[in-house]
Amino acid sequence: MRILIIEDENMAARRLIKLINDSIPDCEIFGNLDTVTSAVDWLNHNPQPDLIFLDIQLADGISFEIFEHVKVTSPIIFCTAFDQYAIKAFKLNSIDYLLKPVDPDELKNALDKFQSGRKAPEITLDQIRVLLQPVQKVYKNRFLVKTGERIQTIAIDEIGTFYSEDKVTFLMTRQGKKFIIDYTLDEVENLLDPELFFRLNRKYISSVGAIKGVFTYSNSRLKILLENSSDNDILISREKMAAFKSWLGQ
After folding, report:
1. Does position 93 have pLDDT exceeding 50, yes or no?
2. With CB atoms counted within 10 Å of each terminal CB, which end of the chain scores lower, N or C?
3. How do residues 42-64 score in pLDDT, each as one tens digit?
4. Are strands 159-165 and 204-207 parallel, antiparallel or unpaired?
5. Read out DSSP for the chain?
């Protein structure tokens, strides 16, 4: 059996070669090729191998570009570090797709599938691209807060700002009610839809509706007036100005 390896990480390639040799001692392994360019050149000047192990991200680009330059007829086992959601999507389509570091049992199953002659159904390059898109992030749409013994939820569209004070993080509603929440401001930022909220500075995250005024300030900074806030020194740095204006005007 002739096997071609296209992989840009030397350590991963060496490990893969060892695992393949353990499973198929009499195979002939070619590569390791680490770029789209070298892979296209090899495939253009050599007979198609019986099987290809293919990484997605190569040193000079995405491996899908290979198929745009040469017709590949060999069966392919994808082997890369994309997340497990993408892997599940591939397995639903009967495409072998291994997560690095490659598990020996997963590799053996993939090779057994190949050797048994089972073929994957037809799938287009565009379909593969779609399957490999990052899973869309789900943002938080409500926060739990506690008042005395009562626990309640605050919907995201009721929230005006989040701010930090004396190492405590507060949620301020559009109506001016404030609640302590069990998150740091950095954690809150990662939970919020960036189209709805903007990190003004180290102390404040604001919704669009909570911004009552924007004023030019010294040293090319902006001064922000927030509803329900008595802080008159909320500033946006020069580095954040362009991103803030873009967010505010979208």
Report:
1. no
2. C
3. 999 999 998 889 888 888 878 87
4. antiparallel
5. -EEEEE-S-HHHHHHHHHHHHHH-TT-EEEEEE-SHHHHHHHHHHSPPPSEEEE-SEETTEEGGGGGGTS---S-EEEEE---HHHHHHHHHTT--EEESSPPHHHHHHHHHHHHTT--PPP--HHHHHHHTSPPPPPPP-EEEEEETTEEEEEEGGGEEEEEEETTEEEEEETTS-EEEESS-HHHHHHHS-TTTEEE-SSSEEEESTTEEEEEEETTTEEEEEETT-----EEE-GGGHHHHHHHHT-
| CA 42 remoteness from chain centre | 31
- What confidence category does residue 103 fall into, taking pLDDT thresholds of 50, 70 and 90? confident
Reading the block at residue 65, the tokens are: 């570009």
> How many residues can be counted in the chain?
250
Name residue 245's amino acid: K
Q: Could you tell me the end-to-end alpha-carbon distance of the chain, in angstroms, rounded to an integer?
A: 57
Are the CB atoms for 221 and 238 separated by under 8 Å?
yes
